[in-house]
Amino acid sequence: MQPTYYSDVSKVAEVLRNFSKYRKKPGKQGGGKTWPGLKHSEQADIDRIAIRLLSTSWGGRKATKSLMEMADTIESLLCLTNLSWNQKWQMGRVLLSALNYSSLYRLERQN
């Protein structure tokens, strides 16, 4: 079980380190805006963020609630204070997207 866990951490960390590359659509030029939620993790230990994200099972949950919980968790991990609701929302979007780009989770539309 450990090899899978460590490879999962590596996948999420890779996406967080290269988020803009994963966001880029094939055949398109770059140059789009950087997501505001990335600024909080620029100087952070990305592996620790990935480990903390993967310590919770996010499957079967609503995306909006999950991304806010992810942001709260990482805000605490990084000892950030006084983040606005919008800053948490932006951070959560990045975290949720990273889990999806890593192919460990996927969003499903409910009927």
Can you walk me through this structure?
The chain has helices at residues 2-17, 19-23, 46-54, 63-77, 85-101. Helix 1 packs across helix 3 (46-54), helix 1 (2-17) packs across helix 5 and helix 4 packs across helix 5 (85-101). The protein has one domain (2-21, 37-101). The chain is mainly alpha-helical and 111 residues long. The longest helix is centred in the C-terminal third of the chain and has 17 residues, at 85-101. The mean pLDDT is 85. Helix content is 56%, strand content 0%. It is built from 5 helices and no strands.
List low-confidence stretches.
none
Largest sheet features: none
Give helix and strand order, one letter per element, not per position: HHHHH
How many domains is the backbone divided into? 1
Q: Into which percentage range does the β-strand content fall?
A: under 5%
Shape, principal axes of CA atoms: globular
Topology:
Elements: H1 2-17, H2 19-23, H3 46-54, H4 63-77, H5 85-101
Helix pairs in contact: 1-3, 1-5, 3-4, 4-5
Outline of this structure?
56% of the residues lie in helices and 0% in strands. By secondary structure, it is mostly helical.
Throw out a few tags for this protein.
111 residues, mainly alpha, 5 helices, globular
